[in-house]
Design a protein that fits this description.
Chain B: One of its GO terms (molecular function) is quinone binding. Chain B: This is NADH-quinone oxidoreductase subunit J. Chain B: It comes from Lacipirellula parvula. The complex is a heterodimer. Chain A is mainly alpha-helical. Chain A is built from 17 helices and no strands. In chain A, 62% of the residues lie in helices and 0% in strands. Chain A is globular, with a radius of gyration of 24 Å. Classes of the chains: A mainly alpha, B mainly alpha. Chains A and B meet through α2, α4, α5, α6 and α7 of A and α2, α3 and α7 of B.
Chain lengths: 473, 198
């Protein structure tokens, strides 16, 4: 028994904690596998649960300030910080009600479906980058996975509305489903723009490419991405069903929408799912546009907290990255709360018009704009085009150098696209020279180095190019 | 514990879940529950894709089937279902017919699964050497007409050229036609003789 526990601790340390330090994982160890998975689950669950705890309190405080009220003050002394705990206790002790005509099984399982979908998005979200990212499951198509999973939450909502045997629930669920499904279109189109610039759907790669000063963030990459970010945030607010797009729970007409008939803990599961989704879309926004785990000033690399200077310093640098990601996520949630208590609710036709008449065309045009920018000014950012002093500030070598060295992508498949637009495909992909014919030469000219006038970046990519060829041969 | 090959275990779990929920789709009589079980079966299939290292296809499965088609399906049920369609009872004759058709298909597929040599399960040592490769790029290249997995083909016609550009274009044009047709059918009809106003 004792040796079993000993082994377990051994695997625990070796399989997860130490892999954060960059040490190797014994990959075929059964216990380590399970324990690592459990630790990831516990961390993510707690992120969502504790996040909801804080956000509910925050929402009440912010709304109190905005509407010139105090918000919670009675419970927990200063700032009423125990308010959510008291709320939680109250919700747990409430009776678990179910309408007579409800479909019992679906009614009971619907909150969990919503909550599971909300949590599943966090599987692929990175919390720190660099060569050893902190991420539960490093997916090659992370952005796509997160966008796909975020769309699943609506399923629980539909089930809840349908199985409640209540017309308010049904109408609320149908409104919300229509809204979420339509807003997925512009949301996906906005998420494509950073993917296009980064040349990868891997969120770790996308984040690593934004290292350095805040001028390297994709929101400042070009005017198109700047507009795309605001469209993305609008669509994200709508797709997590927050005001001003929360018509599905309009209390004057629908009482509370799809969760009219829910009470107690099941009701609170819906709200945990909502706050979890708010956090995940905010973190996704920060990864795609706002530099992910890179602060406005690269403190970690200035202080030398990278993996080149040892594993412990790299670990500390990742901690700073984690702080950055969570801060940006919380700021995004705060902005959503602020919007909710500031703007009036839209009518359903206005909600749909915002999506179909404004967000979708703008996102499409911005996609085109980003493509044109990448084609005409390969590897140049907006700040990189500014006149001399500002441009020097933007691509300062002292801050650029550690980036180039330390931020080797975790998988060798994708080369930093912004330095010369070289999208080296994957290891076994055809190097253009191996295929005869004029088309492939054009492909090389299109994807490849392009012009030699960019002396620094061109030589860089040439080296990469030959290196990859050497690997193949 | 060292002898357990965990991918096999997870394959069995996800495969079993997919089979069980498919059976549940068959056996339940409530049409909304059927849709719910279908979602779970399709999600378990997505799990199989993730297990095989094909994350793009798995996410596609989640986005299209679970998030798109099924939501649409339930929407249709909610909008159209009348009392007698919500609970469906299958007559005994239909059961027999379905058993015959399904059994025939199952026997055929089982025979096919065991007769194709490439589908036999390889040795564990060979499997453990395999490394899942980044997989969205070859799919995209294939849709643009370049098969990156066929570079070593003998002739340059076959080398990387036998992609799926043509079917991809046909499908996309077809979908566009369907979309325009749907918009045409669903447009607000103008009255032939507008009522005089004022």
């Amino acid at each position: 028994m004792a040796s079993g526990i000993n082994n377990l601790l051994d695997w625990l340390l070796s399989s997860w904690l130490l892999s954060g330090l960059g040490w190797s994982i014994p990959s075929d160890s059964a216990v380590g596998y399970v324990v690592a998975a459990l630790i990831h689950i516990v961390l993510i669950l707690n992120l969502v649960a504790v996040g909801a705890l804080v956000f509910i309190w925050l929402e009440r405080k912010i709304s109190g300030r905005i509407q010139d009220r105090l918000g919670p003050t009675r419970v927990g002394g200063k700032f009423g910080w125990l308010q959510t705990l008291a709320d939680g206790l109250k919700l747990i002790t409430k009776e678990d009600l179910m309408p007579d005509g409800a479909d019992g099984f679906l009614f009971k399982i619907a909150p969990y479906v919503s909550f599971a979908a909300s949590i599943a998005a966090f599987i692929a979200i990175p919390f720190a980058g660099g060569p050893y990212p902190w991420i539960a499951q490093h997916l090659n198509t992370g952005v796509f996975f997160v966008v796909a999973v975020l769309g699943l939450e609506v399923f629980g909502v539909i089930l809840a509305g349908y199985s409640s045997a209540s017309k308010w629930s049904l109408f609320g669920a149908m409104r919300e489903a229509a809204q979420v499904v339509s807003y997925e279109v512009p949301l996906g189109m906005c998420a494509v723009v950073p993917v296009l610039i980064a040349g990868s759907m891997d969120m770790v790669v996308i984040g690593n490419q934004q290292a350095g000063l805040f001028t390297n963030w994709f929101i400042f990459h070009d005017p198109a991405t700047f507009i795309t970010f605001w469209v993305y945030f609008t669509c994200a607010t709508a797709s997590v069903n927050r005001a001003p797009f929360d018509l599905a729970e309009a209390e004057s007409e629908l009482v509370a929408g799809f969760h009219t008939e829910y009470s107690g803990l099941r009701w609170s599961f819906f709200f945990m799912a909502e706050y979890g989704s708010m956090l995940s879309v905010s973190i996704l926004a920060s990864v795609l546009f706002l530099g992910a785990w890179n602060g406005p000033i690269p403190i970690a690399s200035i202080l030398g907290l990278t993996y080149e200077n040892g594993e412990l310093t790299g670990y500390l640098g990742n901690l700073i990255g984690l702080t950055n990601v969570l801060l940006k996520g919380v700021v995004g949630v705060c902005v959503m709360i602020w919007i909710r208590w500031t703007l009036p609710r839209l009518r359903i036709d206005q909600v749909m018009a915002t999506c179909l008449k404004y967000c979708t065309p703008i996102a499409a045009v911005m996609f085109l704009g980003a493509v044109l920018w990448q084609y005409n000014l390969p590897g140049r950012t907006f700040f990189g085009l500014l006149p001399a002093p500002a441009a020097m500030f933007a691509v300062d070598e002292g801050w650029d150098a550690p980036r180039a060295a330390s931020v080797e992508p975790a998988r060798p498949a994708v080369v930093d696209v912004r330095e010369g637009r070289e999208a080296e495909l994957w290891e076994a992909s055809p190097t253009p020279k191996q295929l005869e014919g004029p088309n492939w030469l054009e492909v090389e000219r299109g994807i490849g180095v392009g012009d030699a006038s960019h002396s620094k970046s061109a030589s860089h990519t040439h080296n990469q190019h030959f290196a990859s060829q050497g690997r193949r041969d | 514990m060292e002898q357990i090959y965990w991918p096999s275990v997870f394959f069995l779990i996800f495969g079993g879940l997919a089979c069980a929920f498919s059976l549940a789709v068959l056996l339940s009589t409530n049409i909304v529950r059927m849709a719910f079980y279908l979602v779970l079966a399709l999600a378990a299939t997505a799990g199989l894709f993730f297990l095989a290292g094909q994350e793009f296809v798995g996410a596609m499965q989640l986005l299209i089937y679970v998030g798109g088609t099924l939501v649409l399906l339930i929407f249709g049920v909610m909008l159209t279902s009348q009392e007698r369609f919500v609970n469906m009872k299958t007559p005994a004759g239909d059961w027999v017919l379905g058993m015959i058709a399904g059994g025939a298909l199952l026997s055929l597929l089982t025979a096919a699964a065991f007769s194709v040599p490439e589908w036999r399960s390889p040795e564990r040592a060979a499997v453990e050497k395999l490394q899942a490769e980044p997989n969205a790029t070859p799919i995209g290249m294939g849709l643009l007409g370049a098969r990156v997995d066929k570079i070593d083909a003998p002739t340059s016609e076959q080398a990387g050229r036998s992609g799926y550009l043509f079917p991809f274009e046909i499908v996309s044009v077809h979908l566009l036609v369907v979309l325009i047709g749907a918009a045409y059918l669903a447009r607000a009809k103008r009255r032939a003789n507008p009522l005089p106003t004022g």
